[in-house]
Design a protein that fits this description.
This protein is mainly β and about 90 residues long. It is built from one helix and six strands; from the N terminus they run ββββββα.
Length: about 90
């Protein structure tokens, strides 16, 4: 018989930017897509889209929830938990 377990608390999410050239993030649960102009990542609190030029993921560890990226960062946009679309249909509707 399975015991009712307490809900898992969300991972703490932090964001540290330096000179709009580097970005260090914690609390990352997934990276949906990335290229040199856009990186779409997810936290327990919702999605995060990073827009820029020459973006490059220098370190990714989903086990520890860490993401580091470099490039010229133009904007950061957060979405609510409901913002994540799944599957092929979700990618087509993006």
């Amino acid at each position: 018989m399975l015991k009712n377990s307490a809900p898992i608390p969300p991972r703490p999410h932090t964001l540290t930017a330096a000179d709009r050239k580097t970005l260090a993030l914690t609390g990352i649960t997934d990276v949906d897509s990335f290229d040199d102009r856009e990186i779409v990542a997810y936290t327990d609190l919702g999605g995060l889209t990073v827009l820029g030029e020459g973006l490059h993921i220098s370190r990714l560890s989903l086990g520890s929830g860490e993401l580091e990226l470099e490039g010229h960062i133009r904007s950061l946009t957060y979405t609510d938990n409901g913002g994540r679309r799944k599957g092929l249909l979700g990618k087509l509707l993006r």
